[in-house]
Amino acid sequence: MQYAMVVTILGLASFLFGIFAELKKPASGHVISGKGVVICKYPSNLSVVYGYISTAFLAASCVAGYYSLFYPYKGRAVPRAAIFCSRWCSSYFSVASATTVVAAAFLLWPTVQEHIHHIHNIHTDLEFTCPTAKTGLLGGGAFMSLNSALFWLVSLMLVTNAREDYFELEENEKKEYI
């Protein structure tokens, strides 16, 4: 129950910071023409910071979700073979892992791109228009982050059922999993 709350809170925090990052991202920078260069002046915003914070909460949610699956239940450990003998457990674990990777890509790609735009703001191309990162990717990453947390929660519920089933087995049946 505690791990479920931790995964939920971290997943919601990642979602909210991802949405804030998308909402705070400027449409474009201001072009300042110089002698043979274009300087891009971007408005002060927290979209890059929110993007990195969202990614950090996603990673923490993933770590908490993964750790919750293998944490000893009532002080007694369950072999991984007993947990993953069910196709449901293994498939939801795979989907939770995959959605975490996709969410991280959707959050990091525009965040790093926006960060690079802010750092490297002097260009020799006089036609440069001072763009920002792709619109919508941070919001999509935020929703994928929420999906990831939900899949970790479903995985935790399935693993809890597998643990209870394992503890109900007789001793001679448990030897099959060891």
From TrEMBL:
Cell compartments where the protein resides: Endomembrane system
Entry keyword annotation includes Membrane: yes
InterPro entries, A to Z: DEAL/Modifying_wall_lignin1/2, DESIGUAL
Keywords attached to this entry: Membrane, Signal, Transmembrane, Transmembrane helix
Membrane-crossing residue ranges in chain numbering: 49-70, 91-109, 137-159
GO cellular component: endomembrane system
Membrane topology summary: Multi-pass membrane protein
Signal peptide interval: 1-21
Family assignment from sequence similarity: Belongs to the DESIGUAL family.
PANTHER family: OS07G0462200 PROTEIN-RELATED
Name this protein carries in UniProt: Uncharacterized protein
Organism expressing this protein natively: Sesamum angustifolium
Lineage: Eukaryota, Viridiplantae, Streptophyta, Embryophyta, Tracheophyta
